[in-house]
Automatic annotation (TrEMBL):
<keyword id="KW-1133">Transmembrane helix</keyword>
<keyword id="KW-0472">Membrane</keyword>
<dbReference type="Pfam" id="PF03703">
    <property type="entry name" value="bPH_2"/>
</dbReference>
<feature type="transmembrane region" description="Helical">
    <location>
        <begin position="56"/>
        <end position="75"/>
    </location>
</feature>
<keyword id="KW-0812">Transmembrane</keyword>
<feature type="domain" description="YdbS-like PH">
    <location>
        <begin position="80"/>
        <end position="157"/>
    </location>
</feature>
<dbReference type="InterPro" id="IPR005182">
    <property type="entry name" value="YdbS-like_PH"/>
</dbReference>
<feature type="transmembrane region" description="Helical">
    <location>
        <begin position="21"/>
        <end position="44"/>
    </location>
</feature>
<protein>
    <submittedName>
        <fullName>PH domain-containing protein</fullName>
    </submittedName>
</protein>
Length: 168
């Protein structure tokens, strides 16, 4: 029987907030609309002077609309790829669609737990929880954690780190 490398041997996967996809979609839409406005702003004064080259001015608009379509396709898929599991001796984080990543952080190796939430994330009620160890390659980041859960994780992981002899 073939076992998936990106599943947790222990514990149940906890997904991140669906609001992560919505927030990313809205940010991508704002960026795409800026490109559309750049096209319109360049086209209005230059349309007559450019002659046959005027359609080139719509290239940023096409890129902007493509970005909007792509971000709304990508964001929900990416959100579903993120998750974490609390095992007995370690914390497991997974993420990624094409380039998948699984990070197993032993509780005793955690140095500190960082919770961040920018203005957009706070408006949607989530934050990013980052687990730091002495090695930067084993740091684990979980975007889209609901704020109440982020607080619970911060407190629990800090206690577990101290309990396993690392002192977070």
């Amino acid at each position: 029987m073939r076992q998936d490398l990106f599943t947790s041997p222990e514990g149940q996967w906890t997904p991140v907030s669906p609001q992560l996809a919505t927030a990313r979609g809205l940010i991508g839409t704002a960026c795409g609309l800026v490109l559309v406005l750049v096209s319109v702003g360049a086209w209005l004064p230059l349309r007559d002077s450019m002659g046959g080259w005027a359609p080139v001015l719509w290239l940023p608009a096409a890129l902007g609309l493509g970005l909007i379509a792509w971000i709304w396709w990508w964001a929900p898929r990416n959100r579903r790829s993120w998750g974490y599991a609390e095992a007995e001796d370690d914390f497991v984080v997974r993420g990624g669609i094409m380039f998948r990543r699984l990070v197993v952080v032993p509780y005793g190796r955690m140095q500190f737990v960082d919770v961040q939430s920018g203005p957009v994330a706070r408006a949607f009620g989530f934050g990013t929880v980052t687990l730091h160890t002495a090695s930067t390659s084993t740091a684990a980041e979980i975007p889209g954690v609901p704020l109440d859960e982020a607080k619970r994780l911060r407190d629990r992981l800090t206690d577990l780190g101290e309990g396993h002899g690392a002192g977070v």
